[in-house]
Amino acid sequence: MAADFKTAQNPSQPIMAVRGLTLRYARRGVFDARRSSVSALRDISLEMFAGRTLALVGPSGCGKTSLARCLVLLEQPSAGEIVYKGENLIEMKREHRKSVLREIHLIFQDSATALNPRLTVEDILAEPLLIHGLGATKEERRQRIQEVTAQVELPATWLNKRPLDLSGGQRQRVAIARSIMLQPRLLILDEALSALDLSTQGQIANLLRDLQDRHGLTYLFITHDLTMASAFASEIAVMDAGRVVRRDSPSKVFTANLHTNCETLAPDSPSRETVLAPLMPLGNDE
Amino acid sequence: MTSLLRVLELRVDFVAREGKRTHALNGANFEMRHGEILGVLGESGSGKSTVARATLQLLSKTAQILTGRIELEGRNLLVLKERDMEKLRGERIAMVPQEPGLSLNPVIKAGDQIAEVIRAHRGWNRRRCREEAGVFLERVHLSAQDRRIYDQYPHQLSGGQQQRVVIAQALACQPALVIADEPTASVDADTEKEILRLFSELKVERKMSLLLITHDPRILRDLADRVVVMYAGRVVEEGSTEQILSEPQHPYTRALLACALPVSEDRRLMAGMRLPSIEGSPPNPEFVSVGCSFAPRCAQRHERCDIRPPAPVKTEDTRHVECFLYGG
Questions:
Q1: What is the 3-class SS of A22-65, one letter each residue?
Q2: What is the rounded distance in angstroms from the CA atom of residue B96 to the CA atom of residue B186?
Q3: Are B325 and B251 within 8 A, CB to CB?
Q4: How many CA atoms lie within 13 Å of B285's alpha carbon, on the beta-carbon side?
């Protein structure tokens, strides 16, 4: 399957394709030493196309965040493949994977815990360059920081501040600035707007859209806010109980029921019994 | 109708160790009636939560109340001794916090946490408190019959169940006033609907008086009777929910409502459009603005806006707005 994506530079090919991705967490009861597992993701398949936004929606606990963490290999998937520009991320050699992962970034919901409170904004922005051995001199790093802060409209006066001196919206701007320091191709936004005021949500969403237009960025926009998903994305994938149960354009997803919620979005979704099924021991799973 | 809660000219500063002052409330004024759901609407940093914590006298030690009164049923809470205030908290005023997961004790069973509140205020024996706690669990649609929810620890409950337990805890002593600070901010869309439905039931059945703090006007539409809009530590507009949400007068209220994306008809047209937002950010609370605090972000700014702050104007019966467009 991976061979099909060797020519991923072609715009009709997805920049990232996920095939049959499964993630199980091992668990062991307090009084019961038998090992069992919980399936957080079950046979997920998705494609993301360059310069476009795929929204991933679903109720809490459906596996949205697990998927996000898998895509940047913060979790080791139990099965399946993550094909990025024609290569399977999971099977890559370590050094090569590190350089590929430079192009994929994850932005978290809670910017207060995602940023080191003891560093200044300038240090936070310089850190990715140092980690990846880019920007050898201080002057080069400073220049890159200036470019990026101009792009995300970060006032220069913020560079000496620390994260907790900034408001939530300002911090999220810093988190976005940090993520584009390394010129990524794909940003995974895990409820990146959810903790913000409505007005600030609008500001940050517009900023993300500008960056997308300018750099052809691809977004995986994870949210439980259906209104935002429909306004922001070109395609919507609905998740429930660890599976993708529906994929469609926003207009199709919302034509049937405008005042909908996540549950009614997935008419064919597994019943409550199957939702509980992942708690069964491994032998009974699937 | 008599007023339940009156907040008059409330000014609160936070003083950091190095003497830096942050002005959280700059003369907030509003009134709330018995049996009413009053929505407090504003961006983060507008002083919504400070009002809630000042009412409960739970401000941090760095806070200074400079002027003002907070009257609950005619009694000024700001002059009460801590011992009297302790009695009022939970019994007359209760709070539903933003993060139910953090406010519940992780090592006490859910039901016992409700019984604890009843025991502290009523002084009944344990058995009677446990029975009463069961009644309140049922009132928030968590079945106490099979003891399942009662005997669970907070981490065994979902976010929605935890929020219900906290609401049951708040209702346990039948307080005159319940304050809910962004009660749906940390839950998903389905749980949010569930919680809001529960509030509207409790309002009808129990005549619950609720001060509902939120940044999202969509939550208030079907629930609140009246709305106060806060900006930079002041109430800039006050009126019935219909008046505020359908015909907002203050430019800030109008801009804020424009940010709430429409929930229906035009949804399909919006793809590719820019999302509405208010340019700039709220004023730095370390400084008091000379003129109107919203002026730097206002689309209808005028010279006079920078000279002095506008005074509240009564534009209709039951309606106030602080803006020069209406006199000021």
A1: EEEEEEECCCCCCEEEEEEEEEEEEEECCCCEEEEECCCCCCHH
A2: 13
A3: yes
A4: 24
Instruction: Name the helix (H) or strand (E) containing A270.
Output: none
- Cβ <8 Å between A168 and B44: yes
Entry pTM: 0.81
* Cβ atoms of residues B97 and B103 within 8 Å: yes
Question: Can you tell me which residue has the tokens 């809490």?
Answer: A60
Under 8 Å between Cβ of B245 and B262: no
Give me the count of residues in chain A. 286
Q: Are strands A235-240 and A243-248 parallel, antiparallel or unpaired?
A: antiparallel
Identify the residue with better confidence: A163 or A283.
A163
Q: Would you call A230 and B259 a contact, using CB atoms and an 8 Å cutoff?
A: no
ipTM: 0.78
Distance CA A63, CA A22 (A): 11
Nearest to B281 among A167, A205, A230 (CB): A167
By the CB < 8 Å criterion, does B270 face chain A?
yes
DSSP B11-71: EEEEE-TTS-EEEEEEEEEEEEETT-EEEEE--TTSSHHHHHHHHTT---TTEEEEEEEEE
Cα A146 to Cα B199: distance, rounded to the nearest angstrom: 49
Residue A79: per-residue pLDDT: 94
| Poorest-pLDDT segment among A268-282, B190-204, B268-282, B303-317 | A268-282
Of A170, A250, A262, the CB nearest to B188: A262
pLDDT tens digits, one per residue of B31-70: 999 999 999 999 888 899 899 999 999 998 899 999 999 9
User: Domains (ranges, CATH) in chain B?
Assistant: 3-92+175-263+274-326 (3.40.50.300)
Tell the burial category of B250 from Cβ atoms under 10 Å away from its Cβ (0-12, 13-18, 19+). Answer: buried
Q: Measured between CB atoms, does A209 come within 8 Å of chain B?
A: yes
- Please report residues of A whose CB lies closer than 8 A to that of B261: 227-228, 231
Query: Residue B267 and residue A258: Cβ atoms within 8 Å?
Result: yes
Burial of B59 (0-12, 13-18, 19+ CB in 10 A): middle
Q: Which of B189, B190, B191 sits opposite A225 (nearest CB)?
A: B189
User: Contact at 8 Å (CB) between A82 and A57?
Assistant: no
Which element (helix H / strand E) includes A262?
helix A262-265
Contact call for B215 and A197, based on CB within 8 A: yes
The answer to whether B271 contacts A224, with C-beta atoms less than 8 Å apart, is no
Q: What is the mean pLDDT of residues A75-95?
A: 93
| Residue closest to A217 by CA, chosen among A61, A100, A105 | A105
* Domains of chain A and CATH, by start: 2-103+186-284 (3.40.50.300), 114-182 (no CATH)
Size of chain B in residues: 328
